[in-house]
Amino acid sequence: MILVRNIFHTRFGKVDELVSLMKKQHARQAEEGYPYGRVLTGLSAALFSVVSESEVESSLDALMERQRANYADVEFKVWFNQMLMCTESGFREVFNVAAPRADLKGVAGQVVVRNVFHARYGKADQLVEHLKKESKLAQHHDVPPLAIYTDYTGAMFTVVATRDFASMGDWEKA
User: Fold this and answer.
1) Among 121, 131, 144, 173, which is least packed by CB within 10 angstroms?
2) How confident is the model over 135-168, as pLDDT tens digits?
3) Whole-angstrom distance, CA of residue 81 vs CA of residue 102
4) DSSP strand pairing (87-99 vs 49-56)
5) Helices 74-85 & 15-31, crossing angle to 10 degrees?
6) 122-125 own/partner pairs: CB under 8 Å, 24+ apart
7) Where is 39: in which H helix or E strand?
C-alpha cells in the first residue's frame, strides 16, 4: 500500500473552502473503493496549510494510471480548477506503508502527531523495526499505535511515524 500526502498552502480565508473540496475528492475516492482518506489542517504547521492523505494503489504505475484517468474526467477537471483557485502552492509526498495507521473512524477532533526521521545511510530498516517495537510497547500503556511510513519519493532514508489521538488532552496524557 502507498500513502499519498498532498500538502497545500492556501490563501487567507480559503482554508475552509479547500478542506471542503478535499473532502469531496475523498468521498469520490471512497465511491471508487479506496478505503482511507483524510484531510488535516495544521496546528503547528505553516499557516493556512491543508493536507490531504490517501492510501491508494500498491504500485506507482497503478497510481499514475489512475491519475491519467482522473485528468481525462470532466468532473475531476472542474474540481481541480476549483482547487487551484484557492491554492497558492503545494507538493506531494509518497510513502510506502510499513505499519498501517490506527483506525479511529468516528472520533471527532482527531489530532495527528507526526515525527519525521532522516536515518543514516542504510539504517532506515533498523529504525522501522525499532519504531514497531516502541509502538507495541506503548500499546501496553494505552497509547495508540504508530503508523510508520518509509520514503517512496523525496529524501532517501526518511521514516515518518504518526500517532492519532482523539484530542490534545489525550496526547498530553500519553
Assistant:
1) 121
2) 999 888 888 888 899 988 778 899 999 888 877 7
3) 33
4) unpaired
5) 160
6) 122/157, 123/157, 124/150, 124/151, 124/157, 124/158, 124/159
7) strand 36-41
Distance CA 123, CA 158 (A): 10
Q: Which three cell numbers stand for residue 161?
A: 511515524
User: Which string of b and e fits 66-99 if b means at least 16 CB within 10 Å?
Assistant: eeeebeeeeeeeebeeebeebbeebeebbbebbb
Instruction: Tell which residue, 141, 151, 148, 140, has the closest CA to residue 164.
Output: 148
Q: Which cell is 125 given?
A: 530498516
Task: Report the alpha-carbon distance of residue 114 to residue 132 in Å, rounded.
Answer: 15
